[in-house]
Design goal:
The chain is α/β, with parallel strands linked by helices. The protein has six helices and four strands, in the order ααβαβαβααβ. Strand 2, helix 4 and strand 3 form a beta-alpha-beta unit.
Length: 150
Amino acid sequence: MDIKKLVDNMSIEELCGQVLSYDIQPGDTEEETLEVIEKIMPGSLFVCGVQKETVEELMPKFEKDKEFQRKATARAGGIPCIMATDVEHGPGAFCQPLPELPNPMAWGACNDEKLIERAGELTGRICRKLGIHYIFGPVVDLNMNFRSAV
């Protein structure tokens, strides 16, 4: 794929869409999501909300999210659409039946790099199976109140 040629042939609207991320909310309908994808041509889709169903019940939703990704990729002339979510304390932060890990402040306090690395591997492996390419973690926030991890 010739990136320069691809970018040179994109309109301003298409280029702007590549830096946008559409948040797919739990209550969004398929029609609403497809309409936004068609209109703004987002470069990424952010899967929002905490899913409370079992993993088996959620598989059709994850497959639908992958279909949204395929549509966004096609709409952007083949530029892969990135799927993202927020799992800074493990996959359970996104999908409750999955493993939930301690919050980032606890990882800093444990002082065990191997344990932190293993947690990252686990999170990455599970997210990859669900079609997630990018996660918002690790976090580099400064927590100034040791009594609260929020």
